[in-house]
Each structure stands twice: as C-alpha cells, then as structure tokens.
Amino acid sequence: MVRAVFIVIAGLLGVGGFYWLQHTPNLPALEGTGPRVQLAIFSDNGVLLRVQTAHKVILSDAEWRKRLGSEQFSVTRQAATESPFHNLYWNKHAPGIYRCVCCGNAVFRSQEKFDSDTGWPSFYAPIAEQNIATARDMSLGIERIEVLCRKCDAHLGHVFDDGPAPTGLRYCLNSAALRFVQSR
User: Looking at residue 73, which CATH number applies to its domain?
Assistant: First the structure.
C-alpha cells in the first residue's frame, strides 16, 4: 500500500514538473556548456554585481521545446514575431529588469523602456552591451538588425535607428522572449 501511494505521488510530481516546464515563463537561469562569453551579471533589482565569463547555453530544438511554451519557442528559437498590442509587456510600466526567457540573462531594464507606439516593448539601450548580440537579418527582403541574447542566441527582436535620445535607438522586442522581474 505504501509503495502504491509513493508511485502515485512520484507520478503526480513528474507530471506537475513537466507541466511547470511547459507553461511557466519564470524558468530558472541555465548554465551553459558551449563556448565562453563575457556577461554582466545583474541582481533582480538591476544592480551590476560583476562581469564574468560564462558558457553559452546550447540546446537542441527538442530540449528548447520541452523548456519553453509554444509561442516562446516560436519567437526565440525560430525568430517569429508576436502580435503588437496583444503581448505581455508592451504597456508595462513597473520598475524592474527584463531577462531572457530562455536562459535568464539580464538583457534590458525598465529605466530605458519607452512607449514607441508600436505595440511591442521598446528600449533605447540594453542593460549592458555585452549581454546582447546583433546580426544582419534579411528575412523580409529588407535589411534589419536582429537582437539576440548573447548567452543563448535567443531571438529577442530588432533594433532600429528611430529611437529617442540619448542613443537614438529603438530596441523593439517580443514579450515572449522576455521574463520581467519587478524591483523589490
């Protein structure tokens, strides 16, 4: 009898854990095993703690699918774009930082967020230049600059040169690629 109860409880915990991995945007940070990159490490309050070298996170598509929800996977791993004005953070004004939904790397913070009237969260600067990467994107037949998480190469969005001072840049991001952590 005790063994049967243990098996049922273990099964429920396994199913619950699988559900959690599939449906929560608050996944724990991942440690990587790939090539090393230098990252700025921030507290959840946006305070720079240190700059350190870390391994890139490299997972198969199957592993990313297990870890992420379907929209998160589509946006971050396949460079899809979510709908404007119908996403989680386009109109969020609370103080905090935005971390990569895939690996937990700090990428943007609310101090640099502004309303771009585009329907996507927009920032005029990243939290730290070394925490993001950019790449040329010709997917729509025009040249754009893709913004990626430096730690796991997740597609975050694009950067344009029509933003406000002081940078003149607009990092136009997908909410599905981000996890917001409100300052305490």
Answer: 2.170.150.20
**pLDDT tens digits along 14-46:** 433 333 333 334 445 667 677 899 999 999 999
Spatial CB neighbours of 107, under 8 Å, sequence gap ≥ 6: 98, 99, 100, 126, 127, 131, 132, 149, 156, 178
In a domain, 155, yes or no: yes
Low-confidence ranges of the chain (pLDDT < 70): 1-30, 32
In a domain, 19, yes or no: no
Kindly list the catalytic residues: 172
pTM value > 0.85: no
Contacts of 131 (CB under 8 A, 6+ apart): 39, 40, 105, 106, 107, 149, 150, 151
Q: What is the pLDDT of residue 166?
A: 97
Indicate the number of domains in the chain: 1
Return the bridge partners of 122, or none.
114, 172
Quick count: other Cβ atoms within 10 Å of Cβ 31?
Answer: 11
- Nearest 5°: the CA angle 133, 74, 41 is 35
Looking at residue 30, its pLDDT comes to: 65
Give the DSSP H or E segment for 171: strand 170-173
Distance separating alpha carbons of residues 158 and 138, to the nearest angstrom: 12
Phi, psi dihedrals of residue 129, rounded to the nearest 5°: -55, -40
